[in-house]
Amino acid sequence: MKRIVLWFMSTLTVVTLLFGYHTSTSPGSGAATSVLAAPAVGTDAATGGTSSSAGTVTGTSADTRWGPVQVQLTVDGGSITDVAVIEYPTGNGKDQQINARALPILVEETLDAQSADIDMVSGATVTSEGYIESLQAALDAAGL
Amino acid sequence: MTGTGTSRYVDHVMGMPISLAVRGRHAATPAGRAAWAEAMAVLRAADRVFSTYRADSVVSRLDRGELDLADCPPEVHEVLELGAAAARDSGGAFDVRRADASGRIVLDPSGVVKGWAAERAATPLRTLPGTDFCLSAGGDLVCSTAEPDAAPWRIGIEHPRDPRRLIAVVPIRTGAVATSGTVHRGAHLVDARTGRPPEGVASVTVVADSLTDADVDATAAYALGAGAADWLRTRPARTGLVVWADGTTSLVGSPGAHSNLRVHTQ
Predict the structure, then answer these.
(1) B187 vs A contacts (CB less than 8 Å)
(2) Distance from CA of B104 to the nearest CA of A (A)
(3) CA distance B143 to B163
(4) Across all residues in chain B, what is the average pLDDT?
(5) Regarding predicted confidence, which is higher, B68 or A19?
(6) Are B182 and B161 in contact (CB under 8 A)?
(7) Is the pLDDT of residue A120 over 70?
């Protein structure tokens, strides 16, 4: 029960940050909100300790005015070391404001390119010689 | 923008592949193909002016002292000004002028030209009504959707240590994504202050409104090595992902970037 409440708090916090982003160009200005204890869960939890444990916390999907938002926090030593938004609004026109540069990058570690639903690839400069072996070439060849 | 599917086009210029994904009304019409041809023409024209591999390019002649800067076309001034701004903003880590192996100062604006040229090349594509496109110049992209509520382009960010995998996905409608790193070409990117490859950083991805800005900032942040994320935080209207040499990541300008967020444990 406690964990569910805490997840909800985490989700609320990041939604606040999303909301705050396009109203201010100053990073950090919307970050005054506190996040209450985030117990370690997830597969990469380092220890079973309490306040100093490391791990990830995945929030439940929260319905916002822009659509569903779900976040994952990485907590280490009592500090949030990463916040990944793993579900983001896509469908309604209002979220244009938090699109483009304001939309968070989704960090999906060791994401398998074969299974990822992507249109294009950004990476270190591919030469024409190296193109044939690149993921972009595979996408281009698929023609989808 | 569904219904007509996505068309893809590929060509090569400046020694790199140019890929276009286009969907919507003009994905496969003569107007759409003409816009693609025009985009390639813009890139070929930029190559003729800026290539350091062509002895007869404007930049090569300028570098050899055969041409005065005053006699160069306006786009050369524009690019050199962008390069000067990047050098200033990055404390000299990124510079279009740097010493070669023999110590001679050479002019190499290619770190600015690619993003700048691709941004210009996107102009004819932007004029296509009811059409979404994503144009890649060797892994740096300009994206656009005709409608604000279109499905975003999903851009996979290559894993710097394994180009067969992705480390992140960026959903983007209208904007630019650039990544700097060395996975495909070896250690060709250097910190202009030292002439050596930067340490501690594996790749830097920057999302911005314009590819001109995204490309320059990705290259400059990468050149700053361990200072990449801190520097990127000082840049306006940028979102970024820094992948460190040890495989860890830092997000900049997105919710994950709020490093002053604290957890209060009970």
Answers:
(1) none
(2) 26
(3) 22
(4) 87
(5) B68
(6) no
(7) yes
In terms of Cα–Cα distance, which of B129, B207, B119, B75 is closest to A102? B207
Element (H, E) at B16: strand B16-24
Q: Can you read off the two tokens belonging to residue A98?
A: 């938090």
Q: Under a CB-based contact definition with an 8 Å cutoff, are residues A99 and A91 in contact?
A: no
DSSP state of B211: H
Residue A6 phi/psi, 5° resolution?
A: -65, -40
Instruction: Encode burial over A22-41: b for 16+ CB neighbours within 10 A, e otherwise.
Output: eeeeebeebbeeebebbbbe
E strands, A42-113, where?
A: 55-58, 62-64, 67-76, 79-87, 106-112
Q: How far is CA B242 from CA B68, B129, B182, in A?
A: 39, 36, 13
Q: How many CB atoms lie within 10 A of CB A58?
A: 16
Amino acid letter for position A135: L
Pick the closest to residue B39 from B109, B125, B136, B112 (CA basis). Answer: B125
Q: A123 with B139: CB under 8 angstroms?
A: yes
HSE, CB side, 13 Å, CA atoms: give it for residue B37.
Answer: 7
The tokens describing B240, both together, are 């970024």
Query: Which of B113, B261, B264 to mutate to test binding with chain A, by most A CBs within 10 Å of its CB?
Result: B261
pLDDT for residue A5 = 36
- ipTM for the assembly: 0.86
Residue A58 banded pLDDT, cuts 50, 70, 90:
low
Residues of A in Cβ contact (< 8 Å) with B239 = 101-105
**Alpha-carbon dihedral B49, B51, B56, B59, rounded to 10 degrees:** 60
Task: Answer whether A120 sits within 8 Å of B156, measured CB to CB.
Answer: yes
Task: Show the tokens assigned to A97.
Answer: 């404001």
Residue A88: per-residue pLDDT: 55
pTM to 2 decimal places: 0.71
Domains in chain B, start-ordered, CATH in brackets?
A: 6-254 (3.10.520.10)
Q: How far is CA A13 from CA A16, A65, A93, in A?
A: 5, 15, 23
* B225-230 long-range contacts, CB within 8 A, separation 24+: B225/B191, B225/B198, B225/B199, B225/B200, B225/B201, B226/B198, B226/B199, B226/B200, B226/B201, B228/B198, B228/B201, B228/B204
| Shortest distance, CA A60 to any CA of chain B (angstroms) | 17
Which chain B residue is nearest to residue A16, measuring alpha carbons? B255
